[in-house]
Give the backbone structure.
Amino acid sequence: MDIVALELIKNIQQIDRENEYVVFVKPDKNDHVLTESENVKIHLIEGAYPFWEQIKLPKAAAKENCDLIHCTSITGPIVSKIPLILTLHDIVYLENLRFMKKGSTRYQKLGNLYRRWITPQVVKRSKSIITVSEYEKARIRDFFDIDEHDNRLVAIYNGVSSHFKPVTDDETRRTVIQKYNLPDRYLLFLGNTDPKKNTKGVLKAFANYVENAEDPLKLVIPDYDESTLNRLLGTIKKKEIRKHILLPGYIVNTDLPVIYTMAVIFLYPSLRESFGLPMLEAMACGTPVITSITSSMPEISGDAAKIVNPYKPQQIKDAIMELLKNPMLREKLIEKGYRRASKFTWRTMAYNVLKLYYNALNQKEK
């Protein structure tokens, strides 16, 4: 979500020199990645997040004489006289889905409780509600019982950042690979502790692959904790595959193009995604993708990925084996992936959001 907001701000900063913008951020969220310009001001606000969003944000916006507030991360102030646009990336935390019941961390559970309380109220008062796929748009419409003729709800796709492309420079590739102590060829999976990422299913599939391959590739799982992995391997009774898994820790965003490029296959068989940006990043870097038949993944991947049922580890394993044994299929998916990823740009996203700003402002004047 942070990347989406950052790219929106950066692109609007480039395409709109007419309107004035104030970007409200917590000091720990600024990270020196945003810069002020002639018509863009950065306003730092301190405070615990609920208090920051519900009290300090609307007061600061009123003091800056803002005509419109765009809250870019699911929640927003429930009491404010200023018209509001909300980006509602997904409503997973509101749905009674089985993968939300177990496995979430305490931080995730507290965040979900806050969202469950705030989001329905913010949805009611929003001038426009932006989501990131037609799949998620349908879920939101059904959940909140929004009339199909209510044009407040719109789907605007995310984009792929321009630095995601195949890395061909040998020295750059070697430097990044050595930095994270990785082999030249591997399977890549961006999993985390969120149950929807299907880490357990991927590990079951990988264990099956290891058992059937003569010289199995390593599975690289960035930003994943050793103790969490060992506990999960114990749960599925596959501790013996630990030696085939590499945990490089956190990978800097600027190093990700190399990590994608060097991966033989990118695994993204999530149970539930509202968009699925990582699979487009992998495609842009020339890496074939295995993803799910569920939620938004077919909509976003089109015909440029190998589609599987994420609830069936055997299908994930079979897809891995097929891509490794069929170079023609790999090349076909790689070429389709380049074309598919090129259709999603942050500039297009920014133009579409800017249209909503103008619509909201015109409604206010009437």
User: Anything to note?
Assistant: The first strand starts at residue 21 and ends at 25. The domain at 2-159+346-365 is CATH 3.40.50.2000 (Rossmann fold).
